[in-house]
Write a structure and sequence with these properties.
six-stranded antiparallel beta sheet; 2 domains; Phosphorylase Kinase, domain 1; about 15% strand
Length: about 375
């Protein structure tokens, strides 16, 4: 049965690739990444030399207007190219969209939407940072990203997912999911629900500040997990930022907070052993310093001073989103096992507790850096 499924998958990928003018013959494919939404594959094409591409089957239940994602990507790429050079370091590399034979950026095949991107050669990604160097380099890359887009008016970008990082609205949706309990799961998540409900006021800071102008609206990445940075295979410095699907208007603190959430502990985002979830202050210091190195010149005082606050709020928000999806029947995030979203929520809420317990240390790190 497994071999039949693999043969079927290979045939499907081959059929999709027939729509592209590729420099050789399709050889093999393999799933890559650990994203929660799209299905992503690395495909090998062999001609005179071997070429690699990234092929994605887009989840249009989540990304309902993929043509707007394409428009946003096309809008940001010239800015990234213009600012790719990094003083004293190799230039950052940018991915690009590979058009079909008909010159189209998207392909509809058997009712599903596909997209092909260039592959970042001789590079790798990680789901968990290995050391402070990884953290520093990832933060430097995302700081470069937001700084490169400083001249792009954010209002020119499509709003791909409205209120994507609107933490108060995410909390409101959780309250509704708790009240409805449509899938009768609340009894298994009562402690997690109470944890989130008790932190309602904590959700307000960033969104209120963005609304009143305290935090400037910027073109930002919005999904800065550490696995969206590619590292050089030999020297292990950051060479590229990938996964541009959620680039739209936001605040730089969304980006820093989400990166720190996935980089201040050596545990996985869905770790069931909560005892392994421990803050590593040296990793947070590396993140702060790396981000400020490349983005510090464009950030205002609050964007710098609230780096700890953003980390706590975005971690709380992501935990709320996992818990909400669990209560609503697991329709948004891909799950690999029963209760996966509840496991994720528990891990994020444990990380919130760790952030709260280490607040004095982490605030001192920010103050020293700015």
């Amino acid at each position: 049965m497994k071999a039949a499924a693999e043969d079927s998958g290979h045939a499907l990928i081959r059929d999709v690739l027939d729509a592209y003018d590729l420099p050789g013959t399709f050889g093999r494919h393999e799933p890559i990444g650990s994203g929660h939404i799209n299905d992503t594959y690395r495909v090998q094409v062999t001609g005179r030399t071997q070429h690699l591409f990234v092929l994605q089957r887009l989840n249009t239940d989540v990304f309902r207007h993929p043509e707007k994602q394409i428009a946003n990507i096309h809008a940001i790429l010239p800015h990234l190219h213009d600012h790719a050079a990094s003083p004293g370091r190799p230039a950052f590399r940018t991915v690009s969209i590979v058009p079909t034979r008909r010159g189209e950026p998207l392909l509809i095949h058997e009712g599903r939407t596909w997209r092909m991107m260039t592959h970042v050669e001789n590079a790798y990604s990680v789901d968990v940072v290995r050391n402070a160097h990884h953290a520093y380099e990832a933060a430097r890359a995302f700081g470069w990203f937001v700084a490169s887009l400083r001249d792009l008016p954010p209002e020119k970008l499509h709003d791909i997912i409205p209120d994507f990082h609107n933490t108060p609205k995410r909390h409101q949706r959780l309250v509704s999911a708790i009240a409805t309990d449509a899938h009768r799961r609340l009894a298994t998540a009562r402690a997690e629900a109470d944890f989130a409900l008790a932190r309602r006021e904590d959700c307000r800071l960033l969104e209120v500040a963005r609304t009143d102008g305290t935090l400037p609206s910027r073109a930002v990445h919005n999904d800065t997990k550490v696995n969206n940075v590619m590292f050089d295979q030999q020297k292990h410095h950051a060479v590229s930022v990938i996964d541009l699907d959620t680039v739209m208007a936001g605040t730089s603190l969304y980006d820093f907070g989400d990166l720190a959430r996935t980089s201040i502990t050596l545990s996985r985002e869905d770790d069931r052993d909560l005892s392994r979830i421990r803050i590593q202050p040296e990793l947070f210091k590396a993140l702060v310093n790396g981000y400020l190195e490349s983005a510090g010149a464009i950030l205002n005082d609050k964007e710098k001073a609230w780096m700890y606050d953003a980390t706590r709020i975005i971690t709380l928000e992501i935990g709320i989103r996992f818990l909400t999806d669990y209560l609503e029947g697991d329709h948004y995030f891909k799950c690999g096992r029963p209760g996966h979203n509840l496991d994720r929520a528990r891990a994020q809420f444990k990380l919130v507790q760790e952030l709260e317990a280490n607040e004095p240390i982490l605030r001192r790190i920010v103050d020293a850096a700015i």
